[in-house]
Each structure stands twice: as C-alpha cells, then as structure tokens.
Design a protein that fits this description.
Elements (H helix, E strand, L loop, with lengths): L8 H23 L2 H22 L5 H23 L13
C-alpha cells in the first residue's frame, strides 16, 4: 500500500495502459492518416497534460519541475499538430 492506494495487478495494468498509449503514438504517427494523427495527438496530449497537472498537487519541487517540462512538451505537440500544414499528403507520382 502506498499513499492511500493499493498497488496490485489492476493498478499496474491501468498504469501500463496509460503509458502504452503514449508509446504507441510514436509508431501511429507514421501509420495513421494525417487528419486522424492530428486529432489523436491533440486529444492524447491534452488528456496527458491534465493528468500530469493533477498528479503534481502536493508533490515535491523536483516532481513539479519535471511535470512542468512534460506539460510544456505536450503543449508543443498540440501546437504543432494544430498548425501543421494541411496540404496533400499523397505519395508523389513517379513519371517515367
């Protein structure tokens, strides 16, 4: 038991899912269509930022500093996903 909650298999499974989404986004950035990728990056970044801010309440300074950097990086992801050019991303045609 730690800080009022039990660390068991259900907790560890939930934690793994939480981290898994961020890990999968690296690969999905290359696999998803640009429109879906933009929406997924913005949605997951906002969700992660909210959970990180919530987790820093009452924490020590080193944790707050690391969380502030992480939230800043997530903000950059949202900004770049929002402002990324919305051009034609189809593969260029090969002329022979």
């Amino acid at each position: 038991m730690s800080a009022g909650f039990t660390i068991n298999q259900a907790f560890l499974f939930g934690t793994t899912l939480y981290i898994l989404f961020a890990s999968l986004m690296v690969a999905l950035t290359l696999l998803l269509s640009p429109r879906v990728n933009r929406i997924a990056n913005m949605t997951l970044s906002v969700i992660y930022a909210v959970t990180i801010v919530g987790a820093t309440i009452g924490e020590w300074s080193y944790w707050i500093l690391g969380s502030a950097v992480e939230v800043g990086l997530l903000g950059a992801i949202v900004y770049y996903a929002w402002t990324w050019p919305k051009g034609d991303y189809s593969a260029p045609s090969r002329q022979t």
